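Protein modeling request. Please complete all fields; requests missing the sequence field cannot be processed.
Requester role: graduate student
Desired output: 3D structure, token encoding
Chains: 1
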Amino acid sequence: MTKNKDYISIGKILNFHGVRGEAKVGYSKNQADFLKQLTDVFICFEKEYKPFKINSVKFNNKFAIIKFDGIDTINDILIYKNCLIYVPQETFEEALDEGEYLVDDLIGLDVYSNDKKVGVVVGVTSNGANDLLSVKTLSKKISLVPFVDAIVPDVDLKNKKIIINEIQGLLE
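Delivered output (172 residues):
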């Protein structure tokens, strides 16, 4: 998800679907429940965030089908093809479960082990099973740290730090 000032991208209009102005929208698969709950979004069109009401959301194997209020024909939706769909950052943050974080909030956090700074988070990736923090160590090497409770027991956004239980060989 792309963070842009006070908005977070939740999807992209890929094309039209049907003849009634429905949009075929690409989205992160783990965000289907969040999408279903939305009533208002913004579409970034020509560098302007335009508000839209959502009438309905359906899901296909690979994309969501969203009907926006006031978009009733193929031509109405086609002008928004390839545009990103956004929600206000606070809307997205309110929907996060405990222990879930925005990637942008994690990047730049200092990483501590045994009350000693050992590095800084420079990225977040996934191996399919769980997320991995890319930690640039004090020796300037990048180590991948599994983002699981047993290894990362505390994320303190307020103080901009993450506490890890360092396992031998975890940070090289």
